[in-house]
Amino acid sequence: MGQVNQLGWWIKSEDEPALGHEAVYSAIKQVQKPIYVIDTGEKIGVAQGGVVNTSPLPGNSISQEGQFPWIAFVPPLHPGHMGSPDFMRAHGLSYPYVIGAMANGITSTKMVEAAGRAGMLGFFGAAGLAIPQIETAIQDLQSKMDGLPFGCNLIHSPGDPNLELETVRLYLRYGVRLISASAFMNLTLPLVYYRIKGIQQDERGIATTPQKIIAKISREEVAKKFLSPPPAKFIQQLLERGWVTTREARLAETIPMADALTAEADSGGHTDNRPALALLPTMISLRDWATTEYNFNTPLSIGLGGGIATPESAAAAFAMGADYIVTGSINQACGEAGTSNTVRQMLSEAGQADVTMAPAADMFEMGVKVQVLKRGTMFPLRAGKLYELYMNHETYEDIPESQRKILERDFFRRSFLEEWAHTKKFFLNRDPKQVERAETNPKHRMALVFRSYLGQSSNWANTGEPSRKIDYQIWCGPAIGAFNQWVKGTFLESAHQRQVVVIALNILLGAAVLTRRQWLQQQGIFLSDIPTRIEPLELDAIQEQLGNPSQNNPSQNTEIEFLQ
């Protein structure tokens, strides 16, 4: 115990104080109860009953029988109270926890449903899927969620802007009111269309938007655009095309492009590998700038994603001011994920250094990269080789014959012409303009074939194609390694035991415990002989401890009587 200040006196009733650091730590873990730390003279003690007196007692310099100096206090901290109440209220949540949209349906409808029923927010991973597949997922979710919170992903598609527009039209047609906008390097017309279509004024004259956007951003210049009103040039284009009314266009000038912004740090998939400790404060500062600059009528929320995998990282995010947290990589190893058991097992064995960057299928020609798992797969090396060949040669035929033989034997497992025929069929259904361009541009034809390998590699992983295990593309950030280290030796070490809600609640509960421990430390109470690791709990144990967060009232959890 370090330097402490006496806050008052604790007066014993029927209950004896529990003594020792272990007793204090046990009290910390009871997050719905307050902690009153007392000095018994020989050992530190903790009380959760009796009476505390904040005024001097006669002979207050001497501990009398049944009364002890009260030296520290920690209030209750339910995990549902760690983030922003405005954010949770806006989206109907019980917890400030968002399950990010992993593409190709890896964040499946099953996972989104599980999150919503637990009072969390899940985004269906629509990126990479065809419109009919997304439509089926929306129908499935709307038939099951019955008013529970959920959203869908909208990924920036600079190589296929029509797909982005068709996805927006699908969302508007089905009344999908919340999207996660990811990988955007700039605002686009379809995104602005989604945001402002149907905007109205409430009885107070304040503009209200039926469609909400949570944007995942890692660059300051892009963040500013999402924290500002929609650009006038896009509003004018929408007016000229008759997609919005004059009234909608006018009201659009008073709202931000996004309701919330997730600072995306070192994450799986599309990422700029930004450090969370530097990124989150920057995004919070930009939010404060936008609030002052535009005087918006509704609060803007800032969350953190990328690297959130343990109670420590969650506690740090909330301590830095995050309104909510977002997880991704760790959810892919859960039973609800739309991937294969082989991938789940590979992820459960990964360490922090077992990830690397590789060329992205959707933005291949632009040189954009995604973060993927490198342990157990040759995909990163093979994808990098394809990009190198693309950059160094104008046609496939220009590639040295020895290299072409390797590509056709190990990558395509058929001739280039056969692979092109397969690729051509795909793009004729998805985006025929790509085929038209490829027929007159050999370099673009080569790019489409290389992109086909990159795109199929994620599908092979999701379906668990055994003959293609060496080619699996598994989007993943270093967070998976931190998670695996945390749960080592517990029931969550096994991939078969991992469920998305169990993981989420353990992270949030652990973050609350660590935060309460830190509050004690800031009052001079150091539990240096107690391990800091938070042991994961089974779902029943967590639910028994937390109850219903909407009914949780810290003022009702104390049995201490205050005297003045």
Describe this structure in words.
With 564 residues, the chain is an alpha/beta fold. Helix content is 41%, strand content 15%. It has 20 helices and 20 strands. The protein has helices at residues 21-29, 85-91, 109-117, 131-145, 161-174, 189-196, 220-226, 232-241, 246-252, 276-294, 311-319, 341-348, 379-392, 401-411, 416-430, 432-440, 442-463, 479-487, 500-521, 539-546; strands at residues 8-11, 18-19, 35-39, 44-47, 51-53, 67-74, 97-99, 121-124, 151-155, 178-182, 200-201, 207-208, 212-217, 260-264, 269-270, 301-305, 324-327, 355-359, 369-373, 561-563. The strands form 4 sheets. It has an 8-stranded parallel β-barrel, surrounded by 6 helices. The chain has a 7-stranded mixed sheet with strand order 2-4-3-6-1-5-20. Strands 15-19-18 form a 3-stranded antiparallel sheet. Strand 7 (97-99), helix 3 (109-117) and strand 8 (121-124) form a beta-alpha-beta unit. Helix 3 (109-117) packs parallel to helix 4, helix 4 (131-145) packs parallel to helix 5 (161-174) and helix 11 packs across helix 19. The longest helix is centred in the last third of the chain and has 22 residues, at 442-463. The chain is globular, with a radius of gyration of 27 Å.
